[in-house]
Amino acid sequence: MPSRLKSLAAAASAAALAIGALTTVVATSHAAPAAASGVGGNWYAAAPYLMPLDNDPPDPGAVMDATGLKAFQLAFVLAPNGGGCSPTWGGTDAVSSDTAVANVISAIRAKGGDVSASVGGYGGTKLGQTCGTPEATAAAYQQAIDKYGLKAIDFDLEEPEYENSAAIHNEIGAAKILQQQNPGIYLSVTTAGTTDGTGWFGKQMLNEAKTQGFTPNNFSIMPFDGGFNGAAAQTSALTNFNSILQSTFGWDAATAYAHEGISQMNGRSDSGEYFYQSDFQTVLDYATSHHMARYTFWSVNRDRQCSPPDNNGKTSGTCSSVPQGDYDFTKYSVRFAGSNPPTTTPTPTPTGPCAAPAYNNSAVYVGGDQVSYNGHTWKAKWWTQGEAPSTGGSGVWQDEGPC
């Protein structure tokens, strides 16, 4: 999200203090958190972003108690600042030796919640830029999945990475591999928003996903810091993005909305746009009425009132710069999770006239069964459920060619 580079830079000097503050909130543990039983997909779809090590993070348990929230989107997993293909938090804290974020996750899970990890973001060096191949990129992210028992990941693909076609190839390829290797994992892809929906690089990213035959739980745009001001501009962008999804993947409008999400910015944006509680409500009404797949925002760290409330007309990484009560904006995420639970991902519409029935992620298939998926006909070699047709994975599916 466009606020992140400034947020990360401003918070770098306070990282040690933030880590210390967090470890006083949660019990110190040097073990990785136990894998969660998971929360519903509606909570991963509504999880707002939280920087657990920077920008004066609030106590997640207090947020949960005050709002009813059950999931957070932890940001950001990046490549090491010095280069390499191993996951870190913010480019500095290696996932392999982390205890601070693990403690945060444990505390959230102890209260019946869960987390998703967001990889990428604005600024920093991304693993897709340094790992070289989709397979190596996926292996790096798998380390974080295994370390924390993750059931959800957000691929936040934006500047400068999404201008690098090789890096985007690696990221989309890694997401596809993770989808195959971790059945049932919740995957979102977040990218920049424009008044037309998304820009040239966002469209190229969608085309890369189409080329690789990858369909996440949702593609989300961030309609802020791009000439937006208020909910009307945002819902207009969502309508335009829906048309882009239709034209790219051959979906009808309803299927496109079922794969579409929004990530907002609460309060004052970096470019001086303002989004108030009433704007969040209007966008929530749009999202629920169109049965959209995701509704989130940047960030919980900012979901509190500044002093003075307008922060002297400046944008902050730790408060919203608008009048508000604590966690006013987080409560809209909770409402989305309760009112519009996207429990399943609709099957992508085939790109050609396929005779075989469309693949259904919840159906059971046995050897010889045929399905259509992403414009190809596939035949099951043996019993399978929940593994989308591909040439990878367990090898259960045989590609019988385009329809």
Automatic annotation (TrEMBL):
Protein name: Carbohydrate-binding protein
Pfam families in UniProt: CBM_5_12 (PF02839)
Keywords noted in UniProt: Hydrolase, Signal
Signal peptide: 1-31
Transmembrane segments: none
Top-rank taxon, per record: Bacteria
Gene3D superfamilies: Carbohydrate-binding module superfamily 5/12, Glycosidases
Domain Chitin-binding type-3: 356-400
Keyword Chloroplast: no
SUPFAM superfamilies tied to this protein: (Trans)glycosidases, Carbohydrate binding domain
Lineage: Bacteria, Bacillati, Actinomycetota, Actinomycetes, Kitasatosporales
Signal found in the keyword field: yes
